[in-house]
TrEMBL record:
InterPro entries: A-crystallin/Hsp20_dom (IPR002068), HSP20-like_chaperone (IPR008978), Small_HSP (IPR031107). Residues 24-135 form the SHSP domain. CDD domains: ACD_sHsps-like. This is HSP20 family protein. Coiled coil: none annotated.
Amino acid sequence: MLMRTDPFRELDRLTQQFFGTHGTSSRPAVMPMDAYRSGNEYVMQFDLPGVAPETIDLNVERNVLTVHAERTPHYGDNADVQVSERPRGVFSRQLFLGETLDTDTITAHYEAGVLTVRVSIADQAQPRKIAISDTTTGAKQINA
């Protein structure tokens, strides 16, 4: 599995944190993520606390997985906001999925502010034994 890297995302995050510009830049904010292999699948977990499930958009096109989400403030228009530190606005992340992953088997689950996406490893990418023939005796050996 390959991930799209953007060297400016970390700089944007630090700038937003320092200057308090959460959600006001033209670039979507990055969502923290963990990714790991578990058995015959890859698991990706995205932190999206406070995001309503209906604002999450997940799609795959040509082995590129795109996650979009939006967090809007919950206070009304007449609120006199004293502190606003929580990031809000649009969050986005793109991942390049390797050819060894089966994009037809992607599943997603959102619970407690964490979006979990699972992608199965394609059957043709699974490890398998290769038979080796011995031309001198005509016997077949199994590669261990």
